[in-house]
Amino acid sequence: MKALVFRGPGRTAWQDVPDPAVKDAADAIIRVDVVTICGTDLHIIKGDVPEATPGRVLGHEAVGTVVEAGADVRTVCPGDRVLISCISACGRCRFCREGHYGQCRGGGGWTLGHTIDGTQAEYVRVPFADLSVHPLPASVDSRDGILLADIFPTAYEVGVLNGGVRPGDTVVVVGAGPIGLAAIAGAGLYSPGRVIAVDLAESRLAAARSLGADATASAAEEPEQLVEDLTEGLGADVVIEAVGVPEAFEMCTRMVRPGGRVANIGVHGKPATLHLEDLWAKNVTITTGLVDTYSTPMLLRMMAAGRLPSSPLITHRFELGQMEEAYDVFSRAADTGALKVVLGGSQHSEIIAPAQP
Questions:
Q1: Can you give the chain as a three-state secondary structure string?
Q2: Which of 100, 122, 253, 310 could form a disulfide with 1 if both were Cys (CB 3.0 to 4.6 A apart)?
Q3: Residue 188 · residue 155 · CB < 8 Å
Q4: Are residues 116 and 229 in the same domain?
């Protein structure tokens, strides 16, 4: 089959690789129908994620069709259209029993496209299928459903819930890429007083306004002053960092009010300075987190009911074989206006299992 392979910092290739096969009775083999690219994939290609080694098939988000299921799989069977979660869960370890699937110690967690081959391929092996894939209702289009593989649960759990967004809060989201935009939409579920979006790109600020941001500010034009003006000098109740660079994180800590909360979502490849000389007396709570995806079933019900926005987030569509072109467009988002790029989506009349090795 064809797959997008990481070949070392700055290098990838869409190339032939062996077909996946069931290795454990809890595995499922899934034909990838729709796949997308995440900012985390760009971090891997830059060399920021050392656990992802050369030769790894990238990708951790997809919608597909089950073609083979191991003997222990009970919740899906061949022919089912499913959402592949970015997080796999063994269901047995301490963290899984507590619902912290992202920290799974039984062979799960963030594995796809990280420590095992991922979804940017024609087929993928998904471990612990009963807890790691979700059947998609007919009312959810595959190209919308893929937003539930990572960005919506990540923004909701790590941003909105960790940030403790409450009615009437002033919420600042720094970074209006796909995750930041999903955080704006998620924050809106809790009736904040105002949502302020910060980004360098006007196209992304426009998307933020379409998803519910009440005010926007260019990151290059004193956004801290805007927050101060809008809050009468108090600062924001909740600040969500959705970029993953030191400057953005440090800006967030300057925007938050005493007793406020900073929720870091961004994937950081470099150290950021924690200015405790300014923060120690401010009663500020700072949270970090890898998504657990415990919210995915609830978010899936909301999408099926038409309660989650999806169309504004998807800006470009490609065929699966255009993976390298899609990466080029996504990586140059400031020039192309890309938010979420989606590959695939063609309908298939029959299911063909990959050949066994």
A1: CEEEEECCCCCEEEEECCCCCCCCCCCEEEEEEEEECCHHHHHHHHCCCCCCCCCCECCCCEEEEEEEECCCCCCCCCCCEEEECCCECCCCCHHHHCCCHHHCCCCCECCECCCECCCCECEEEECCHHHHEEECCCCCCHHHHHHHCCHHHHHHHHHHHHHCCCCCCEEEEECCCHHHHHHHHHHHHHCCCEEEEEECCHHHHHHHHHCCCCEEEECCCCHHHHHHHHCCCCCEEEEEECCCCHHHHHHHHHHEEEEEEEEECCCCCCCCCCCHHHHCCCCCEEECCCCCCCCHHHHHHHHHCCCCCCHHHEEEEECHHHHHHHHHHHHCHHHHCCCEEEEECCCCCCCCCCCCC
A2: 122
A3: no
A4: no
- Per-residue pLDDT tens digits for 295-342: 999 999 999 999 998 878 999 999 999 999 999 999 999 899 999 999
How buried is residue 201: exposed, middle or buried, by Cβ count under 10 Å (0-12/13-18/19+)? middle
Judge if 121 and 179 occupy the same domain.
no
Q: Are residues 281 and 304 in the same domain?
A: no
Domain membership of residue 349 (yes or no) is: no
Tens of pLDDT along 251-279?
Answer: 999 999 999 999 999 999 889 999 999 99
Please report, for the domain that includes residue 209, its CATH number. 3.40.50.720
Within-domain flag for 280: yes
- Across-strand partners of 194? 170
Closest among 110, 107, 108, 89 to 99, alpha carbons compared: 89
Judge if 188 and 102 occupy the same domain: no
My answer on whether 109 and 7 are in the same domain is yes
The reply to whether 157 and 265 lie within a common domain is: yes
Q: Is the CB of residue 99 less than 8 Å from the CB of residue 292?
A: yes
